[in-house]
Write a structure and sequence with these properties.
- There is one protein chain.
- The chain has helices spanning 12-16, 18-28, 48-56, 70-73, 94-105, 108-113, 115-127, 137-142, 144-154, 161-172, 177-200, 206-212, 222-253, 255-262, 266-280, 312-316, 350-367, and strands at residues 31-35, 41-45, 60-61, 134-136, 214-215, 218-219, 285-291, 295-297, 300-302, 307-311, 372-373, 394-396.
- It has 17 helices and 12 strands.
- The strands form 4 sheets. A 5-stranded mixed β-sheet has the order 1-2-10-7-3.
- It is globular.
- The chain is of the alpha+beta class and 399 residues long.
- Helix content is 50%, strand content 11%.
- The structure holds protoporphyrin IX containing FE.
- The site of protoporphyrin IX containing FE has 23 residues, from helix 13 and helix 17.
- This is Cytochrome P450.
- Belongs to the cytochrome P450 family.
- Keywords: Heme, Iron, Metal-binding, Monooxygenase, Oxidoreductase.
Length: 399
C-alpha cells in the first residue's frame, strides 16, 4: 500500500477494500488533506471522536459564506437555486427555520403510514423479476424501491412516475454532466408545477403538508418546497438503495446469515439493519463542512475556509469506538454509529430508510429464502467517494 499519511487515498486499493485503506489513513494521519478523484481536494476526518465533533461543532459550517468576515459575506455569491434553499446546505438560522417547518410535515405517523404501500411496491418489484435466472438486484430492486417510495411520499401522480424515475436515475447514474444538469432542471420545473397543482388540489401526501405547514406565520415558499422535495429525492434514494444492496451482498457471502435473518423476528431484523448501517456505512464520505476559524486537531491545524469531509465509513470502523470493527456482527450494540450523521443535520429520513430496508429484506427473505449469487462474488464497487455502493449485484432468486 502507498504511504497513506500523505499519498493518494482514492486509488484502486480503495475500491477493492475501502475499509482497509481508511484504517491505514486513520492510523497514520487521522486529519489530513486528500485529493478527490474529480480533481478537487479536501481535509479528511477519519477518527470516530473527530467525526462526531466536526458534525456537532458550530465552528464547522455548511455555507462557505459563513467562514468569511461579516463585511464580505453579503457580497459573496451563494449556491444557485434550488441548492441554495436546501436545508442540508444551510446553517442556523436558515437551517433551523426550514428544519422546524419540515419536521411538522415529515412526521413519524406519516412514515409509519407508508408501510403497507412499501410492502406492496417491494412485492410488485420482486414479482416482475424472473425467479430462476440471474437478475441485477441493484437495478431490479434496490434502486426502484426507494424511488417509488419517494414518489408515494411526495404525492407524485402515478402517470408522472416514469418521467420522475428517469430524471432521478440520470441524477445518480454516472451520466455526463450536461445530462445531469438537464435532468436537474427538468425535475425542478416539474416539481414547481406540481406544487402549484397541489395548491389548487391538496391531497394527503407530503407536498400538500409542506404547503400547509406554518410556524408563527412562517411558511415555506414554492422555491423552498421544490428544494425540499429535490433534497428528499437526492438524500433518500441512492443511500437507501445502497443499504439494501449492502445487506443483500452480505447475505450472499454468508448463507448462514441469510438463513438466520429469514427466521429472525422483527426486532432481530431491525438490529441486523443497524449493524448493516454501521458496518456498511452507505454514505462513506459525504458530510461536508467548512472551517469558520482555524481548528487544531492534536497539532494539525485545519485553516479557516478549508473544506472538511467526514469519513463515516472510517468512523464506524474505528476500533477506539467499536470492538472488532471490521466484523459484521448482527445483534451487537451499535449505539452511536454515525451512518445517519450527527448533530443539527442528522438524517431527517432515518426512520423512513429503516422502514424501507426492513420491508425490502423481509419481503425478499419471505419470498425467496434461498436466494444465491448469480456470478462469483465479489462484484465491483462503484467508483464513488460518497457512497459505498455496488455497481451490480447478480442474484438468482430461486435457484
Ligand atoms: C441528512 C444518511 C436516507 C433525507 C443525512 C446525513 C446523513 C444521511 C449522513 C447528514 C449529512 C450531513 O451532516 O452533512 C442517510 C443514509 C440513508 C438516508 C445512510 C439511508 C440508508 C434518507 C432518506 C431521506 C433522507 C430516505 C428522506 C426521504 C435526509 C435529509 C437530510 C439528510 C433531508 C438533511 C438534514 C438536514 O440538513 O437537516 N442523511 N440518509 N435521508 N437525510 Fe439522510
Amino acid at each position: 500500500m502507498t504511504d497513506l499519511a500523505t499519498g493518494p487515498v482514492f486509488t484502486d486499493d480503495y475500491w477493492r477494500d475501502p475499509f482497509a485503506v481508511l484504517a491505514e489513513v486513520r492510523e497514520q494521519a487521522p486529519v489530513r488533506e486528500v485529493e478527490l478523484p474529480d480533481g478537487g481536494s479536501t481535509w479528511l476526518v477519519t477518527r470516530y471522536a473527530d467525526a462526531r465533533s466536526v458534525m456537532a461543532d458550530p465552528r464547522f459550517v455548511k455555507d462557505f459564506r459563513n467562514t468569511l468576515p461579516p463585511e464580505q459575506r453579503e457580497h459573496a455569491p451563494g449556491i444557485p437555486s434550488p441548492g441554495g434553499e436546501m436545508m442540508l446546505l444551510n446553517d442556523p438560522p436558515v437551517h433551523t427555520r426550514l428544519r422546524k417547518l419540515v419536521v411538522k410535515a415529515f412526521t413519524v405517523r406519516r412514515v409509519a403510514a407508508l408501510r403497507p404501500r412499501v410492502e406492496a411496491m417491494a412485492a410488485a418489484l420482486l414479482s416482475a423479476l424472473p425467479a430462476d435466472a440471474t437478475v441485477d438486484m441493484v437495478a431490479g430492486y434496490a434502486v426502484p424501491l426507494p424511488t417509488a417510495v419517494i414518489c408515494e411520499l411526495l404525492g407524485v401522480p402515478v402517470d408522472d412516475r416514469d418521467a420522475f424515475g428517469a430524471w432521478s436515475t440520470t441524477l445518480i447514474d454516472e451520466t455526463p454532466e450536461p445530462d445531469k444538469m438537464q435532468a436537474n432542471a427538468s425535475l425542478a420545473a416539474y416539481l414547481s408545477e406540481l406544487v402549484e397543482r397541489k395548491r389548487a388540489e391538496p391531497d394527503e401526501a407530503l407536498i400538500s403538508a409542506l404547503i400547509e405547514v406554518s410556524e408563527a406565520d412562517e411558511r415555506l415558499s414554492t422555491e423552498e418546497i421544490v428544494a425540499m422535495a429535490m433534497l428528499l429525492l437526492i438524500a433518500g434514494h441512492e443511500t437507501t438503495a445502497t443499504l439494501i444492496t449492502t445487506s443483500v451482498e452480505a447475505m450472499l457471502r454468508d448463507p448462514g446469515l441469510r438463513d438466520r435473518l429469514a427466521a429472525a423476528d422483527p426486532d432481530e431484523l431491525r438490529a441486523a439493519i443497524e449493524e448493516f448501517l454501521r458496518w456498511g456505512a452507505p454514505i462513506a464520505q459525504a458530510p461536508v463542512r467548512f472551517a469558520a476559524e482555524d481548528v487544531d486537531f492534536d497539532g494539525v491545524v485545519v485553516p479557516r475556509g478549508a473544506m472538511l469531509m467526514v469519513s463515516l465509513a472510517a468512523a464506524n470502523h474505528d476500533p477506539a469506538r467499536f470492538e472488532r470493527p471490521d466484523d459484521l456482527e448482527p445483534g451487537r450494540d451499535t449505539t452511536g454509529h454515525l451512518a445517519f450523521g450527527h448533530g443539527l443535520h442528522f438524517c431527517l429520513g432515518a426512520s423512513l430508510a429503516r422502514l424501507e430496508a426492513e420491508v425490502a429484506l423481509r419481503t425478499l427473505l419471505d419470498r425467496f429464502p434461498a436466494f444465491a449469487p448469480g456470478v462469483t462474488l465479489p462484484v465491483e464497487r462503484r467508483r464513488s467517494v460518497l457512497v459505498n455502493a455496488w455497481q451490480h449485484l447478480p442474484v438468482v432468486l430461486d435457484p
